[in-house]
Amino acid sequence: MAGPAALLVSIGHQEGALRTLRAATAPHPPRSPRQPPRTQTSSPGRSGPAWHSLGEETEVYEPGGAQELQEERKATGKSRKEGEESGDLSPPSPGEPRPERTARSGTLRETALRSKMSRLAEATSRLVQVEQTLLLPLLQQHPFPLHPKDSIEFRNICSHMALQRDGQQFERDLHEAYQCLKTIIEKLICSLAGFPSDSYIPVQSALRQILQNLLAV
Q1: What's the rounded Cα separation, in Å, for the pair 131 and 125?
Q2: Which of 1, 60, 115, 182 is deepest in the core (most CB within 10 A)?
């Protein structure tokens, strides 16, 4: 049997895990855009209409050069058109992922992970609230079994997960954190089943609701 002190220890570890989860799910400030490199627009000793300001194309006009430039552009356009008609510019093979599809799948995966972390943080916050307001007064009336080690493990998993940020290890840690919090709630529900009076029913109902929201798809 455990008293209020053991519950307070568990709550302390759960609050530590909650702070880690909230910090991990907080939006990061956008990076400041890089300044474009400064380009030298003119060189000493060169002047005249052939040199333009930054951002404009620079072309040097020489006698007879305009006609040659025009013929070169026509030849380039013709060869490009012939390449398209002959199929030289072949599209990616069926088995090769397109860049836009890869980017889209990556974005969807990140969104799903953020949603799962937010749901985990919300369930942890709600659990701490129920333990402080409903479970602690009940435990002062009649001690019942608690498992503080599960809360310690939950805090450690969340701390390790926050260091990963992404990747397969991050997803494994997130899954383990889910399972650990699920175990904490289920053990509390089972412990309350042996309470000598019906005063445990509101607490048990609140815990079941947290578990249902945690596992919601």
Answers
A1: 10
A2: 182
The string of pLDDT tens digits covering residues 172-185 is 999 999 999 999 99
Q: Which two tokens stand for residue 185?
A: 């709630």
Q: Which two tokens stand for residue 202?
A: 């509101």
Q: Which tokens belong to 25?
A: 């799910």
CB distance 157 to 182 below 8 Å: no
Q: Which two tokens stand for residue 151?
A: 């809360």
pLDDT of residue 42: 47
Task: Please give the Cα distance from 11 to 5 (Å, whole number).
Answer: 10
Q: How many CB atoms lie within 10 A of CB 143?
A: 14
> What proportions of the chain, in percent to the nearest 5, are helix, strand and coil?
70, 0, 30
**2 in helix, strand or coil?**
strand
Which residues have C-beta within 8 Å of that of residue 162, sequence separation ≥ 6?
20, 21, 23, 24
Closest CA to 177 of 163, 152, 158, 160: 158
